[in-house]
Amino acid sequence: MTYVSIRPERHSYELIKESGEFVINLVTKDLTYACDFCGVRSGRDVDKFTEMHLTAKKGEKVDCPIILESPVNIECKVKEIVPLGSHHMFLAEVVSVSVSEKYFDKTGKFHLNRSKPICYSHGGYFTLGEQVGSFGYSVRKKDTPKTGTKQRKRRSGKNSGRNNKRERMNF
Prior knowledge:
- The chain has 171 residues and is of the alpha+beta class.
- The protein has 4 helices and 10 strands.
């Protein structure tokens, strides 16, 4: 499941409401300009695919187009629309995910980081930076200096030895 929140006055709002479908196309550094353009121009006034030289391809399980240049396309079918003030949330089931083959290595492992994905925060577009951890590193057994054996990190008490609220929220 996933969701998008859209203002009712946006062109895409009616399209999604009527069709019951949408696609989330992940954005890369190379697609940042097109992403911004598509976010500030209305599909009522301009053909965004033509203007930004994007390739539209019919989705596998939805009738709306995916952006072929995007490394990951997430096809969704709306299950519920929840009014939330200025925006309405389209809660949807993920029905298909397409991934560009060029981001797989020869063992079949997908490397999204090679696509140079971006994120949007407070009016700015940012590339993703250095790796700061890996799955399970917070509980991984560590070598002890005296015996060389591995010990599991234990959690006890309310704050588990954490120093401040900000640290507790950084996972």
